[in-house]
Amino acid sequence: GFEAAMDAALAKATGAPEKGGAGLPGYAVLARRGRGASGQGSVVYHKAFGAADMESGAPLDKDAPFRMYSMTKVMTSALALELCERFGEPSPDDEVAKYIPSFGREWDVVEEA
What H or E segment, with its residue span, contains residue 9? Predict the structure, then answer.
């Protein structure tokens, strides 16, 4: 089923699930299906792999907090550029409001010369 497919995909990408994540820094994966009445959907996959502490080798708990800081900006930008490269949208020149109307047009566009 879905869990086996996720385990196989992660094993192919990192080799971690097949070894319990031994020797790797910890990472967690959460997948949800649908949205439902709660707006969040139901959890269909939630596992952690690798170490919470590389020195001791203590395993990571699937509910462990992660410090993301500003990494979400980098990941979102990389995803947007990947979509642009593969599908031609969004264009780097598009206004955010084209895709998220509630964003509005209150922001100035700054371009480097």
Answer: helix 2-14
